[in-house]
Amino acid sequence: MTSSPLVPEISLNPLPQSDGSCQYTCPTSRTTILTSVNGPLEVRPKDELPNHATIEVIVKPGIGVAGVRETRLSSLIHSTLKSLILTNHHPRTLIQVVAQIVQAEDHTSLPLLLTPLLNCTILSLLIAGIPMRTVGWSVHLAVLQHPPKTVKTAEGQVFRLGRGGEDEMETEESEQIVVRNPNGEILGQAESSHTVTFSKEGEVLLIESMECSQGSGGQSADGQGWDISDFLRLAEEGKRICCEEGVEIIREALADRKVF
Amino acid sequence: MATTMSLDSPEIVLPGDYLPQLSPLLNPPQTDPETNTKPRSLRLGPGLTLSPSTPSTPILPYRYGTLNLLTHIKRPTASILSTPRHYHPSTNDPVLVTLLRTTAEQFIVQLTPYTPPAIIPFENYIINNAGTTASARKSRPNLPIGATIYARVSVVHKHLEAVELSVPDLNYGEVISQKNTSTTPSNQKNSNKKESQSTSVSSGTTGAASLANRAEVTPYILSISQPMTKLLSAEETLGKPLLSAVAAKVPFEMIVGRNGRVWIDAATQKEVIKVVRCFKEFDEAEAWNDEDGGLVKGREIVGKVCGK
Amino acid sequence: MRLKPLPHPSTNHHRHHHRTPSSSRITNPSRPSPNPRSRETVQLVHYSATMPKEPEISLAEKTFVLEALKQNLRVDGRGIHSFREIELSFGDDYGFVDVRLGKTRVLARISAEIVKPRSDRPFEGTFTISTEMGPMASPSFEVGRPTDLDHTLSRLLEKSIRRSTALDLESLCIVTGQRVWSLRADLHFLSHDGNLIDTACIATITALAHFRLPVITVSGEDITIHPVTERVPVPLSLLHWPICVTFSFLGEDEDGEVVCVLDATAQEEALREGDMTVTVNKNGEVCQISKSGGVAVEAETLMKCARMAAEKVKGIDKLIATALRDDEVARNKGNLDWLKEGKSENER
């Protein structure tokens, strides 16, 4: 597991003063995120909720000041965390999450940042001991049509969407591939990009899909959309990755933490 | 090494994990007619919560850690052992708090930074052996702002405005912070505390003697992480290697507040600083997370700070 | 610098400039007085109602720290005038540095883009420093609500680095009046245990010295940016390295003189009565001195501080240079390996 190119580099509690923190580096795109979690803290009166903790998510860009992209990212993370954190355990308090983009191939690409941000945040919530209903994991999948031979991928990073009822040979010949956690170069050639996030139990937490206008070397027309049955198969595989491999990564990251 | 570790340490559970070990305890057998014992209900400690939405698995962990199931005691208790850095107050915890201000009915104190202040109502503040409380204005101790009070958590409820603390007897109360305080009562106070929470750590009689002779030494209040607090509180087990290593070099006294604050006193300021540095550097290196519980790292730090 | 809790009125607030030596010694908070203090107190109450509180420092800690200073001792065992160990590490990209001073940690990243120059300065590129703090460093920093520390820090970096013309802006010109490089330094404050100013300055200077601009060729209207893999990128034209050294004034020594400590921790900063930042380069040239209020110090002390800063900066300058050289060697080693690998592949 640990030697796989699909496993992120995780360092728990790199920040000495926060309640929980995590540094996460995506093995393929080298996107590095640092998150800190503090809580439950004293909440500002205007944000106080009588029966729940207030969750605050701040995404700080690596370059420049926070703008629309960061607001979008933090609202996506916020809504994901809202279904994970048991906010009724600490009413009238604040759970504060700050995510800093440390390094990114492309500081402007939302899909390349979202998966590392989500996974890093979930790990730091765990290490901070914030009450959670369950844990989740996110994976970023890019669909490439007619991939050029030059696409460099790591072992195990590529899979095909098997079509039910058809034999193995045919799927091998299929010209559509899915790349897990693509880097900027691969994403640039992708037809569509899907960030899927599932809970440990297999519930959908977040699906953020988008059409990539570059689309496979210009062969597919813009705005073509994607096939729903392909998408369901993709989501199914994403679910397997999150629930099996993702949860295993979390367990392994926490395995050497002493508890007493 | 990895295999021995996995044998030694029980498996890590994640929030929402199903805990099959708890199932037999949930539906206890009917009262045994022979022994006439009552069915034992399971008590949930920190880390476990009742989940009404999933009737098949009603008890779920809400944080990561290992399951700590105590069945041998009168009332079986299950909890999730974990080492978060944040302090969650729980009833009867001894704590060291800082006085923020005094109102007409209570002392407002700081339990941990950036969290809502806690309160010590005057009627919870016992000032003498007869059990007189600080309710009467005359008997109220005149504490300066910033004073450190050794107290006990008496009421915690999530829907309560503030955590309520008490000073239940003379072992608690203000912890000396002025250098002018005469040495005799303070020593007495500390030796009283020793029975409850304070630990006098020294490598022989020399320590106590030097402490009695101190002229203008002031104690220090150190802030540490929760795992470190647990380590120092368990002075006979987890904390023993570090505490005895430090005490072999510097005799000192300490009071551990579960809210991550430690009162440290020694013969000279230099010595207090040595103890403080040993604890701080051990904590900052997260040495308690080492495989050996910080044994090697602790010795290394003590050697560096106090000399060989 | 930071918000002072009311109980310690003798510790001064950095932004208040109207301090006379006599008033700085007053310790009674409730004393109604015609001196400037009353106004400050009102202001402090106002602040504390709107900002998250700094943790209260206990009397025991305060007494201990001040008593220890009388014997030239600091709680972390350092000498009065010694810095914590400065750790520098670099990322994969040029112009990215991670600086640690004890538990204080600051990241700096330099980025560059091509823009049209300002019409009044057609020969010059631009350089901006962004220093927004967030709650990652300390829950008392709020996003979108700059603290006094934010203002002080950005003003000091502006004075120390930009106005001391450390960076030759004319060297950033590509086509006069048409295209220039616009550089920006983004500082990220990850952990705050005092002395953010010196740490931020070291981070910015190191990142600037580490940064490489891609090579550009201009032919007529077209500008070609050569990727790093094609042409070796070039370092910036840094004329000198101004480094901030902040002195914190707190407590008294045995003679009753105010003690000045270097590289204060957050605890010492909370207890200090004044501070002064001196920016010097390794040649001992003073670029900037800033002392905004606080306890009054003798002119002589100021001279002593300036000399000490010059001495410290020599060491810090050397440390930065060594770290940069080591990183350069490590990078080149990687390149050589890569070249060798390429060669052997070709041979096959």
What gyration radius of chain C follows from the Cα positions, in whole Å?
23 Å
CATH homologous superfamily heading of the largest domain in chain B: Nucleic acid-binding proteins
- The CATH superfamily of chain C bears the name GHMP Kinase, N-terminal domain
Spatial separation of the terminal alpha carbons of chain C:
65 Å
CATH architecture of the largest domain in chain B: Beta Barrel
Q: Approximately how much helix is present in the residues of chain C?
A: 25-40%
- How much of the sequence lies in strands of chain C comes to 15-25%
Count of individual helical segments of chain C: 6
Would you count the extended β strands of chain B for me?
15
- Number of domains in the coordinates of chain B? 2
Q: Can you walk through the features of this model?
A:
The complex is a heterotrimer of chains A (260), B (308) and C (348). Chain A has one domain: GHMP Kinase, N-terminal domain (Ribosomal Protein S5, domain 2, 2-Layer Sandwich), CATH 3.30.230.70. Chain A is built from five helices and ten strands, in the order ββββαβαββαβαββα. Chain A has helices at 68-82, 110-128, 168-173, 184-188, 228-255; strands at 9-12, 20-25, 32-42, 54-60, 93-103, 136-145, 158-159, 176-180, 192-199, 204-211. Chain A has a five-stranded mixed β-sheet. Mean pLDDT of chain A is 87; it is low at 165-172 and 215-221. In chain B, 26% of the residues lie in helices and 22% in strands. In chain B, strands 6, 7, 8, 9, 10 and 11 form a six-stranded antiparallel β-sheet that branches. In chain B, strands 12-14-15-13 form a four-stranded antiparallel β-sheet, sandwiched between helices. In chain B, helix 6 (240-249) runs parallel beside helix 8 (295-306) and helix 7 (269-284) packs antiparallel against helix 8. Chain B is flat, with a radius of gyration of 22 Å. Mean pLDDT of chain B is 79; it is low at 1-8, 177-198 and 202-215. In chain C, the strands form four sheets. In chain C, strands 1, 2, 3, 4, 5 and 6 form a six-stranded mixed β-sheet that branches. A four-stranded antiparallel β-sheet of chain C has the order 12-11-13-14. A two-stranded antiparallel ribbon of chain C has the order 7-10. Chain C has a single domain (2-37, 75-347), classed as Ribosomal Protein S5, domain 2 (2-Layer Sandwich), CATH 3.30.230. Chain C has helices spanning 37-50, 59-70, 148-162, 196-210, 266-271, 299-347; strands spanning 86-90, 96-101, 104-115, 126-130, 173-175, 179-191, 212-213, 216-219, 222-225, 234-235, 243-252, 258-262, 274-280, 286-290. Chain C is of the alpha+beta class. Chain C has six helices and 14 strands. Chains in contact: A-B, A-C, B-C. At the A-B interface, strand 3, helix 2 and helix 5 of A face helix 5 of B. Chain B: One of its GO terms (biological process) is nuclear polyadenylation-dependent rRNA catabolic process. Chain B: It is found in: Nucleus. Chain B: Keywords: Exosome, RNA-binding. Chain B: Its main location: nucleus.
